[in-house]
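Reviewer 2 asked us to include a model.

Predict the structure of this chain.
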Amino acid sequence: MSDSDDNTCPLCMEEMDLVDKHFVPCPCGYRVCMWCWHHIRENMNGLCPACRVPYKEDPHAFVEVDRTE
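Predicted model (structure tokens):
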């Protein structure tokens, strides 16, 4: 995966901002932007696209943001 792939949501293909890049909505580690996470939960099946585990109401975690970013 290239560095540019790390900056793009794999679902909507939009560039992820700093908050999105540190948002980890599922314990499996698959990352989508917050917009896609919300859309999946509210309008679709609510399952992680990678592991198919239901997304919880409270997202899994945020990783620490590097202050230099």
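The radius of gyration is 12 Å. Strands lie at 23-24, 61-62. We have added this to the supplementary material.
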